[in-house]
């Protein structure tokens, strides 16, 4: 099992400091936002030997020309930093052929397309996400990114999770959640009120077991988007994220 870290876009932490702290905490990989890919980031990853498992994030909307231009730009960034996957988020549904074209662009850059489904977006269920994975996977590397927060607040069942073919899972994002304070504003809950694994209300033991018991052995990337934790020193933050995540996957 590879433990990774997905950064919070609101962290005021230099990439070099984050990668160094994550490596010291025990993480194998660290994700990066496309706009942070620069010479300093490349040097930081090389210096620590940490992989980049995900480039954040490819946004698919209804504007075809903008989508394709964005795909070309992110493919270049993915190749530059050596990202395994380009995380792909849908604000609107898109024709399968367009997704295949984007997947081929990423594939040429050495990265796969990681399809994120979320109850807060245009593809709210596992089956919706798998439609794009299967379409893209005909010509390029594609997988479903399964987020514990999104799964637990979606309409999907444990049977749905257990039915996802292991080879079709790109990687997992992992976090807990506080009891919703604003149940009618779940985007706010998702962006600001996640919790360290084991410090919230989600059924994370069952989530992890549903994958582990079937023999899944991939990348788990902890993603804790939390207003409460954003001001912690980077060493303390990454250390707590690693320790709480490893408990479920070791």
From TrEMBL:
Keyword Isomerase: yes
Alphabetic keyword roster: Isomerase
Name this protein carries in UniProt: Xylose isomerase
InterPro entries recorded: IolE/XylAMocC-like, Xyl_isomerase-like_sf, Xyl_isomerase-like_TIM-brl
Stretches that traverse the bilayer: none
The species this protein was found in: Mycobacterium paraense
GO MF term (any one): isomerase activity
Pfam family, one: AP_endonuc_2
The Xylose isomerase-like TIM barrel domain, residue ranges: 20-227
């Amino acid at each position: 099992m590879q433990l990774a870290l997905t950064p919070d876009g609101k962290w005021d932490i230099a990439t070099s400091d984050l990668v160094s702290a994550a490596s010291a905490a025990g993480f194998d990989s660290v994700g990066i936002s496309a706009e942070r890919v620069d010479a300093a980031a490349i040097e930081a990853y090389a210096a620590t030997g940490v992989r980049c498992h995900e480039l954040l994030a490819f946004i698919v909307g209804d504007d075809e020309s903008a989508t394709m231009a964005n795909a070309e730009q992110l493919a270049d960034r993915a190749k530059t930093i050596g990202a395994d996957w380009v995380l792909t988020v849908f604000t609107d549904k898109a024709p399968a052929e367009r997704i295949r074209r984007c997947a081929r662009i990423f594939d040429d850059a050495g990265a796969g397309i990681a399809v994120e489904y979320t109850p807060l977006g245009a593809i709210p269920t596992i089956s919706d996400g798998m439609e794009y994975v299967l379409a893209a996977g005909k010509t390029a590397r594609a997988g479903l990114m399964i987020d514990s927060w999104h799964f637990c607040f979606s309409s999907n069942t444990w049977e749905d999770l257990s039915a996802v073919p292991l080879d079709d899972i790109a990687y997992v994002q992992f976090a807990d959640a506080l009891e919703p304070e604003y149940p009618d504003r779940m985007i706010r809950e998702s962006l600001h009120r996640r919790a360290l694994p084991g410090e919230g209300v989600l059924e994370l033991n069952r989530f992890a077991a549903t994958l582990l018991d079937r023999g899944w052995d991939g990348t788990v990337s902890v993603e804790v988007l939390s207003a409460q934790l954003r001001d912690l020193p980077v060493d303390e933050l990454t250390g707590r994220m690693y320790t709480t995540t490893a408990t479920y996957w070791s």
